[in-house]
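Annotated sample (chain length 116).
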Amino acid sequence: QVQLVESGGGLVQAGGSLRLSCAASGRTFSIYSMGWFRQAPGKEREFVAAISWTGGSTNYADSVKGRFTISGDNDKNTVYLQMNSLKPEDTAVYYCAARTNKSDYWGQGTQVTVSA
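Output written by the structure step:
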């Protein structure tokens, strides 16, 4: 089992920045990638960004490319999402996810609200 705890959400004005953190615990040695997803009210959960835990390669949704940066600290078993130039349409609950060879794990989510 892997447990994930997100932090860092909040309220910010458009154009501002936030950094989300996600700390993993448990069978962290089995993780091979981690990522962020988001879900806005009335919409389906969507992919935001991911990072390989072995090679460090990253992947982003087109909607956040150039504005968001995902990074990881293997020693701390923590993944970060630096969000710059935030827009009202970025408002959502952001979920951290971890993938192992057996299962996907999810955090409880953290609210990000961007005011116009």
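Annotation: The longest strand covers residues 18-26.
Annotation: The chain has no helices and eleven strands.
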